[in-house]
Amino acid sequence: MIYTILLTLLIPALSWGQNLVSVRATMIPNTGSFTAKSIKLKGRLLKQENVFTADRLSVFVNSFETENNLRDKHFAEYVGGGSKLPHRRIDLTELKAQDGKGTGNLIVNGVSKPIEINYEEKENFIEASFEVRASDFKLPRANYLGIGLEDLVKIQVQYPYEKK
Amino acid sequence: MKFILFFILLVTSIKSFAYPNFIGHSYTSCLNCHYNPFGGGPLTDYGRAVSATTISSKALFPARVDDEKLAYMSGFLFRKPKQNWLRTQVNYRGFNLVRNPGSTKAETKQWINMQADARLILKFGENDRFVAVTNFGYSPEPANPIAGDKQSEWRSREYYLGYRITPRLGIYAGLMDKVYGLRVIEHIAFSRTTPQVTQNDQTHGAMVHYLSETWETGLHFFQGNMSQDKDLRMRGMSGTFEKTVFEHHRLGFSFLNSKNDYLELTSLALHGRFNLKEGSSLLFEAGQTGQKPANGEEIKARYGLLQTSLRPTRGVYVLTNVEYLKRDIEQETYTVRWGPALQYFPMQRLELRLDVYNTRNFTPDASTKDSWMYLVQTHVWL
User: Which residues of chain B have pLDDT under 50?
Assistant: First the structure.
C-alpha cells in the first residue's frame, strides 16, 4: 500500500516536463503553503563546455497557476506590482553558472537584485533552485483576510539548454 | 487489503480536479479557515472566502460575478464586514434518513434536524490574537443517550476563549471537541464514535496548540461536560501530533485517556492526510480503544477509516468511505461499512449531500443480511 501511495504522489510531479518555474510560498502562521507554477519560461539557455549562460530568461506573472483561480489573480497582482500589472514580467538576466553554482540578476516588480543559484545538470536540462525575500524586491507584506505569507520564498526552475 | 489497494488504484487513476478536505488544497493546518486550530465550528473570514471561491460552484452566478466578488460577498451580510471585531454565523443541517430502502416491510424514513444554531465570534488583535467563540441552538438528543443523562435539545455545544501567545502558540479554554484523530464530518464514523469524540462529546477543558514549520501538535486537558452529572463526566486528557511530509501531506498519531465513576476509556490512533493534488485528498485513521468498566474486564475495540474525496468539477465532490470496526478484538466478529457520497455546493452557504451506506457484519457462526441506508442532507449557513 505504501508503494501505491508513493506512486500516486509521484505521478503528478512527473507530468510537468522540463519547462517549469515553481514558486513556493509559506502561509503565516505556518498553516500551509502553496506553489505557483508556470510552464511558460522563455529565453535561451546555452551550454558551452561546462558553463551555462543566458542573457535573459523571462516569465509572465499571469502565467502562474496555484490550483486556485482567485489566488492566481492575487499572485499576479502582487508580484506584478498592482492590478494593472505594471511589472508583468519576471526576468533572470546575466545568468552564468558552472560546477553546480551560478549567479544572475533577478528582476521582480521592477527591482533588480543579484542572486546565487544552485543547480544540477540533468539529461538535457538543468534543475536550479534559489531563495529570495519578497521585501528585497519592494513587495509589500502579503495578507488576505488575515492570512499572510512568509517573506522568504523558494524558487525552483527546470529548463532545457542548448549546446553552443 | 486487496480491495483497499484496488480502490486506491481506482480513485487515483481518474483525472479529476481536486476537492475539499483542505489538505487537498495544500492547507495542512485547519487554522486558516477555522477559529479552532483543530477544525470544526465557525469559519474565519479567510475560510468563508475559500468556501466561496474554491469549494462552491459558481455556475449559478452570471459571468460578471468573478471570484473576487464572490469572496467579497462571502461575509454574513453578503459583503465584507465593516469592522474587525465581531462575526456572526447561522447554521442549519438536516437530512432525510432512509433505512432499508426498497423493502416493503422494513423501509423507514425519518427527517432529522441535526443542527440549527447561531454563532457569535469576538476577535481582537493582530491576526485575531484573541477570540471568544460561542454557539447556541437546537441539537437533537443523542440516539443512544447515556442513562440518566438528560440534555436539553436547546444548548450550546461550543464556547471557548482562545489566545495566540505567538502566531505559533495558542491556548484555548472552554467547551470544545476533544483533540483526537481526524475530525471527519461523518459523525457516525467508527473513528469518531469508538473513541467518543463525535458530535455530542464536547468537553470543558483547556487546550494548548503549537504550530511549527513542519509539525503541529495539541494537548487537551478536560474535566468532562459540566452539563452532565458529576459521576458521568469523562475527565482526562488527549493529544495529537502531526508531521508534514513531502510538503503537502500529514502523518500523525493521537491518544486519549478519560474516565468517570463507571468507565475508563483509553484510545490510540494513527492517521494520515494526503494531498492528491488539485484539491483531492485521501484520509486514513486506524485506532484501538479500550473500555474498562469500574468493575469489569477491559474490552478493546479496533477501528479503521479510509476516505477519498475527488472533485470532478468545482462545487461537486465524490467521496467514498470504507470503515472497519471490531468491537472486541478477542472475538472474531467485525463490521465493515462502506459507501459513496455525493456532495454538491451549488453556491456558498448551501450544501446538498447524498450518502449511501452499506453495512455488513461478519460473524463466524452466522450469516447476516447487509443493511442499507441512505441520507439526503441539506446544509445551509449564513
Answer: 1-20
Please tell me what DSSP assigns to residue A15: T
Mapped onto helix, strand or coil, the DSSP state of residue A37 is strand
The CATH number of the domain holding residue B151 is 2.40.160.10
Query: Which domain, by its residues, includes A35?
Result: 18-163
What ipTM was assigned to the predicted interfaces of this complex?
A: 0.80
Considering only CB atoms, which chain A residues are within 8 Å of B14?
Answer: none
Note whether residue A1 is domain-resident: no
Q: Domain range spanning residue B92?
A: 2-381
Q: At what angle do helices B2-12 and A2-14 cross, to 10 degrees?
A: 10
* CATH number of the domain encompassing residue A121: 2.40.128.110
On whether residue A6 sits in a domain, the answer given is: no
Tell me: the pLDDT tens digits for B308-353?
999 888 998 899 999 999 999 999 999 999 999 999 999 999 999 9
B117-152 pLDDT, tens digit each:
999 999 998 888 999 999 998 877 766 666 666 667
The B residues from 55 to 74 touching A (CB cutoff 8 Å) are: 67-68, 71
Among A35, A67, A145, beta carbon nearest to B279 = A67
Report how many domains make up chain B. 1
pTM of the model: 0.87
pLDDT at B375: 95
- B residues 198..217 contacting A (CB < 8 A): 211-213
Distance CA B253, CA B274 (A): 15
- In chain A, the number of structural domains is 1
